[in-house]
Design goal:
Low-confidence stretches: 134-138, 166-173
Distance between the termini: 5 Å
Helix content: 55-70%
Shape: elongated
Strand content: 5-15%
Largest sheet: 4 strands, mixed
């Protein structure tokens, strides 16, 4: 990998991290507004604006782009060309290795493809959901209490002063949901068709990655890093 390409990847990494952090901060701001409204009206579930979901999607996309930098995928190329590109990318990736911890373990939540793939193939999940549930009615997207996430089919919960069973909640909708923990805002979960993402754990990994990337950029600009393939 030459120095120009190294700097391009480093710049793109920092850019994607910044976009992710901006998006997550917007999510938190809109959530706080909705949380205040829920408290005023004594509600536990609310349907936020499309802007809320736009920033959540933006956050997931940026995480995906970050993961792709560290885990190159094959496209229209020969096996030999792909192996060469992997070897070249390793020069960049090696700069982020953690002591006594693999890169995958250090940033495992960022690298998790489950939710990203769900959003990228949403049509397939809609088909599958309808086949499994028979009906697909009143679809919406909600901010809801985290205890709904782990309810069994037989349990019930009080929602907006009504007692509902989980099958009723599923019929109400649930394409996507933002599950909040009323006792700890750091435990918020974003879910789409059952795929889940911990916002706090990914943010902590982003913050760690950004600190390392910014230091690398400063060292690179100061001529302290020797790049070689």
């Amino acid at each position: 990998m030459n120095e120009e390409k190294f700097k391009l990847f480093l710049d793109q990494l920092i850019f994607q991290i910044n976009i992710a952090i901006i998006s997550l901060n917007k999510v938190k701001d809109i959530y706080k507004e909705n949380k205040s409204l829920m408290q005023q009206k004594n509600l536990r579930i609310i349907e936020p604006s499309e802007e809320f979901w736009m920033y959540l999607h933006s956050y997931v996309i940026s995480l995906s782009n970050i993961a792709k930098i560290f885990h190159p995928t094959e496209f229209m190329e020969t096996d030999e060309e792909f192996r060469k590109r992997q070897a070249e990318r390793k020069v960049f990736i090696d700069q982020f290795k953690e002591e006594n911890e693999s890169l995958l373990d250090a940033y495992k939540d960022i690298a998790d493809k489950n939710l990203r793939n769900t959003l990228e193939h949403i049509d397939q999940h809609i088909d599958r959901y309808q086949q499994q549930n028979g009906l697909f009615l009143n679809i919406n997207r909600k901010i809801a209490p985290k205890e709904l996430l782990d309810m069994s089919m037989t349990q019930s919960v009080k929602v907006n002063n009504k007692v509902l069973h989980r099958d009723t909640i599923l019929v109400m909708g649930s394409l996507e949901a933002f599950f909040y923990d009323s006792k700890n805002d750091d435990n918020d979960i974003y879910s789409a068709f059952g795929a889940k993402l911990s916002l706090q754990s990914t943010f902590l990994q982003l913050d760690k990655l950004k600190n390392k990337a910014v230091k690398l950029m400063n060292d690179f600009n100061a001529g302290k890093i020797n790049i070689h393939s």
